[in-house]
């Protein structure tokens, strides 16, 4: 729970970045993209959920607060399980199922006490017996050292993942050519974490790939390919009309994709530039000099 909470606090969860959602039609989103974009819109909401997760985890660590902890835990865990299942977030399903089962196990193991509390108004039975013998008191107090270590480990683990997989370079952001012209293939650049990039051309086609950045010599190499639902459907429909051996399937797909891209003028883009960064302006210098304006502030992230 601590790891999931810190993922929300450090924005490694509910954060798809620029390339997945910006300037895309909502009907092109899958379940994961819809869910993360919706819940990630409000920073405050994410922090509240993180706070509730931390509180429930802390309550579950102590016998006297276990009941309120398990009720609080299941109140959001069941909701998360339903979202993962019905929005087809396959990667998160196994863990959410395990956590929900564990929560119900804790709930049912204390079922008698819970029914006494909620359904019987006069119960003088002591629901919390003496739990710890005197000889074991040292172990009891030891948990107050272990718990902070667990919390610290969860934070460090998530922060390390963020530093490894969410690295920003100096060009991170959304860049739009100014003024717009049809002589330049690249109309808009979405430079993401770990040098991932999305490119929009002057015909509003999207390309995805990576950049190689030499910030010392100010060199930028761009290598992207076009992907779209329309291209995917064209390839699949073409394959259905053909009789192809399994060994030739990959080559045939590649040939169909190349044919489609040549027809639609969406062939892969591989370009090298010198670049200059001045405040909110990025100059890309190749065969011609083009200026791109930083418009990241227009997008909520």
Domains (count): 2
* Helix fraction bin: 40-55%
Question: Into which percentage range does the β-strand content fall?
Answer: 15-25%
Subunit organisation of the chains? single chain
Q: Would you tell me the structural class of the helices and strands?
A: alpha+beta
What is the string of helix and strand elements?
HHHHHHHHEEEEEHHEEE
Describe the main β-sheet briefly.
8 strands, antiparallel, barrel
Report what the structure shows.
The chain has 10 helices and 8 strands. The protein is α+β, with helices and mostly antiparallel strands and 301 residues long. It folds into 2 domains: 2-165, no CATH class; 173-298, Lipocalin, CATH 2.40.128. The chain has an 8-stranded antiparallel β-barrel. Strand 3 and strand 4 form a beta hairpin. It is elongated, with a radius of gyration of 27 Å. The two termini are 24 Å apart.
Topology:
Layout: H1 2-9, H2 18-21, H3 31-40, H4 43-60, H5 66-86, H6 93-109, H7 111-119, H8 137-165, E1 173-177, E2 186-191, E3 196-201, E4 206-214, E5 219-226, H9 229-240, H10 249-264, E6 269-278, E7 281-285, E8 289-294
Antiparallel strand pairs: 1-2, 1-8, 2-3, 3-4, 4-5, 5-6, 6-7, 7-8
């Amino acid at each position: 729970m601590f790891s999931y909470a810190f993922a929300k606090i450090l924005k490694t969860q509910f954060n798809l970045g620029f390339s997945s959602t910006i300037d895309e039609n909502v009907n092109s989103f899958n379940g994961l993209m819809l869910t993360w974009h919706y819940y990630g819109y409000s920073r405050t909401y994410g922090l509240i959920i993180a706070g509730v997760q931390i509180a429930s985890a802390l309550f579950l660590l102590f016998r006297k607060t276990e009941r309120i902890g398990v009720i609080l835990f299941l109140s959001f865990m069941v909701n998360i399980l339903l979202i993962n299942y019905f929005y087809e977030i396959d990667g998160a399903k196994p863990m959410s199922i395990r956590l929900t089962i564990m929560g119900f196990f804790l709930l049912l193991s204390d079922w008698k006490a819970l029914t006494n509390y909620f359904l019987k108004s006069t119960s003088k039975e002591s629901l919390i017996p003496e739990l710890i013998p005197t000889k074991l008191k040292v172990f009891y107090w030891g948990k107050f050292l272990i718990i902070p270590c667990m919390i610290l480990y969860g934070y460090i683990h998530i922060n390390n993942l963020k530093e490894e997989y969410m690295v920003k370079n100096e060009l991170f952001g959304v860049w739009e050519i100014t003024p717009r012209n049809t002589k330049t293939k690249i109309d808009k650049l979405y430079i993401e974490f770990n040098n991932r990039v999305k490119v929009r051309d002057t015909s509003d086609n999207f390309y995805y790939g990576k950049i190689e950045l030499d910030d010392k010599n100010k060199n930028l190499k761009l290598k992207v390919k076009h992907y779209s639902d329309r291209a995917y459907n064209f390839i699949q429909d073409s394959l259905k009309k053909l009789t192809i051996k399994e060994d030739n399937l990959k080559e045939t797909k590649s040939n169909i994709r190349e044919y489609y891209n040549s027809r639609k003028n969406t062939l892969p883009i591989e370009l090298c530039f010198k670049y200059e960064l001045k405040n909110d302006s990025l100059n890309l210098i190749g065969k011609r000099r083009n200026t791109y304006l930083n418009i990241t502030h227009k997008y909520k992230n």
